[in-house]
Amino acid sequence: MKSRPASITLRPPVNHYSPPKEIGRQEFSRVSVPANILMYNTIGILTGGGDAPGLNAVIRAVVTTATGQYGLKVIGIEDGFEGLLGETQTRVLTAADVRGLLPRGGTILGTRNRGRFVERNAEGVTTKPQAVYDEAVANLHRKGIDALIVLAAKGRWQ
Questions:
Q1: Residue 68 sits in which domain range?
Q2: pLDDT value, residue 125
Q3: Is residue 146 one of the residues assigned to a domain?
Q4: Is 114 part of any domain?
Q5: Rounded mean pLDDT of 15-23?
Q6: CB of 84 within 8 A of CB of 142?
Q7: Is 7 exposed, middle or buried (0-12, 13-18, 19+ CB in 10 A)?
Q8: Looking at the 3D structure of the chain, how many domains does it have?
Q9: Is the pLDDT confidence value at 13 over 50?
Q10: Which strands make up the sheet holding 147-151, listed edge to edge?
Q11: CATH number at residue 137
Q12: Coil, strand or helix at 44
């Protein structure tokens, strides 16, 4: 029978924010980061690949933290990376939009396993059409998205 530890030491949360040299090394909490230091005003979030439990919980955490603690605008991109092509499939996400998501499975943004970012010819050789990537990047800029959070398995990055 395993013995339990006599006491458990809890560590304070890790703050990965490193202030610029001119500000100094004083203690910073995530909430007290000066607004003029934030590099982003708008972030995008999408889910790619297969559906998986916990995606809605992560979407909720990103939206509530980004909007509530940092005052950022969050744009949800629907249908995975495909939502960045053509007439984009996006919507602004607020804390009200993600309220009650924890018990719900799947993803409110939708996801896709296949799309136009990889083409396969008859011999099975895959290519990545540059025009598709250029269109997606152009649409990110057009929507004013400064950073993109992608919730996907390793296969989506290949």
A1: 40-157
A2: 77
A3: yes
A4: yes
A5: 47
A6: no
A7: exposed
A8: 1
A9: no
A10: 90-93, 73-77, 42-47, 147-151
A11: 3.40.50.450
A12: strand
